[in-house]
Inverse folding.
């Protein structure tokens, strides 16, 4: 099953609707972290982000304009002050850390963003580990999955 199908299943299972702004905030914070992990937004990473936004729009889960605004607020924070921007995004993810399937789907989505350009750089890898730590999951579990 692909990442988008897993995301859809997790959203439906939890009954997440547009009112779950915490989920939207965590999703877009993590996507922003991964797209800017190596200090640039590569086209492939933006296409992967847009694929996530398209799926959320199809599910009528969130307003895509709102999702883009949240994403851009995090990318702006990251560009203005990298340390503070990362702290803000990781704090949002830590508040979302509930384990379960929806957390795993988020982690896979973030890994998908990092791998979108076919290069999992050292800065992306380090940030992925920090995201997993904030979400209280094992990065190795997902990296091992990705290698299979």
């Amino acid at each position: 099953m692909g990442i988008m199908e897993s995301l859809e299943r997790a959203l439906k299972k939890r009954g997440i609707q547009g009112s779950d702004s915490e989920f939207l905030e965590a999703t877009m914070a993590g996507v922003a972290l991964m797209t800017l992990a190596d200090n640039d937004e590569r086209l492939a990473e933006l296409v992967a982000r847009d694929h996530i936004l398209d799926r959320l729009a199809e599910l009528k889960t969130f307003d895509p304009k709102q999702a883009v605004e949240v994403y851009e607020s995090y990318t702006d924070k990251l560009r203005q002050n990298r340390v503070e921007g990362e702290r803000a995004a990781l704090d949002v993810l830590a508040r979302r850390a509930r384990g379960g399937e929806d957390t795993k789907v988020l982690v896979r989505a973030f890994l998908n963003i990092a791998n979108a350009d076919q290069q999992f750089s050292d800065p992306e890898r380090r940030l992925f580990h920090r995201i997993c730590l904030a979400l209280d999951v094992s990065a190795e579990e997902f990296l091992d999955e990705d290698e299979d």
Q: What stands out?
A: The chain has a mean pLDDT of 79.
